[in-house]
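seq as requested:
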Amino acid sequence: MSVRKKIAEPNGVFSITITCASWLPLFNITNGYHAVYRWFDYLKQEEHHIAGYVIMPNHFHALIAFRTTSQSINTIVGNGKRFMAYELVKLLQEQNRKDILDQLAEWVNATEKIHNKKHQVFEPSFDRKECYSIPFMQQKTNYIHQNPCKAGLAKLPEEYLHSSAKYYYTGVQGVYPVITYIELQDIDLT
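struct tokens:
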């Protein structure tokens, strides 16, 4: 569950996208949005910062400020994907969704089967863009928040429940509390 290219930087602000395998709407099917929020809780506990997010039915985007730790950013994200995958599989089992579980099992490649992997819940890699400047962070945050509108899930970004747009547009925290990319400027990530 790694990105195809290693992130060399030990810290920084990254726009991260994680996609469900074959774009299946697993977050929607399982109502498993809380799996992402629990990963965010873990990240905060480790002193990383969530500066924006949107959880769509089949993928999610997040603007995350990673501080320097003993783990690489790739490892942190890979472990997060693994944690969320276990949670989504558990929800599918509770819902008796054998059809989807069988499909996810078929997508596991032979090498991963040898290592006892049972389900391919997410695409093997994740997308990441390092955000070096405030204008680029603003561009990424706007893109993230517009996703539900472009998909026809909301008329206004702040109306979509599983997004940080409410905080950015109204100043009121939504389902999951975040800080803004402007507030990140005062945080030492080393």
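The mean pLDDT is 94.
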